[in-house]
Amino acid sequence: MDITQLVAKYEIAIRLGCFAGIFGLMALWEWIAPKRQLSVSKAMRWTNNLGIVVLNSFIVRLVFPAAGVGMALFAEAGRWGLLHHYEVPFWAAVVASVVLLDFFIYVQHVMVHAIPVLWRLHQVHHADLDFDVTTGARFHPLEIILSMLIKFSVIVLLGPPVLAVVIFEVLLNATAMFNHGNVALPIELDRVLRWLVVTPGMHRVHHSVEDDETNSNFGFNLPWWDRLFGTYRDQPRAGHEGMAIGIRNCRDKQWCSWLPGMLVMPFRRQAGDYAINRRNWERSDALR
Length: 288
Description:
By secondary structure, the protein is mostly helical.
């Protein structure tokens, strides 16, 4: 059995094992040394945030039983994608694929902030009134489906090795839990790590209620794209303890903290201004 067959066979176990391990470590870290005090009880937030994770996992397996690995195998069998038409060393194809897949996640993230109908879905992620490891997996089911379709399109166009897809999925899940963690790193360590991976201090800025801060630091895994395309912001104006988390015009726990509210939020709430398209930013001093 070659590495492709081996990885494909144990893909679910690999992903679930990594998810459980990283989630457990981050949850323990948050419990021992939280960066911020939560405004909503952890029991309420975790029950509902993890509830939407379970729902999304069920929907993805129902609608896309083969997931990204299945699409990579499909592309490989049909020799679809750029990398199937050029002689590229296997290791180089794996590295290039992981980096390019991450770039498209960055582009997708910018897109869901910039396009009004997509922001309606993505605001479910941002409406969390606190910021911790569960926020990293809190997405509306329709956004998850959209994300899967985009990922499938990129896989078909790129033709990445199956190993690269699994590595990318594991890294994305792991870094999403890490950079949404309610934890603090020593300043010097954070400054160094920001050149290699998106840190909690870097990504927390993205969850500020301030429009210009929300529309910065879009990276989930690699931090380079924000620096390259001018969307990087070093620190929030109010500091990490003083900044308000969430969306300015959505502070009601009915929408922000309960699973039913999250599911209907894109269809019943006003989506508000699409700040990424504006030149002048509105301040929210009253929320601090």
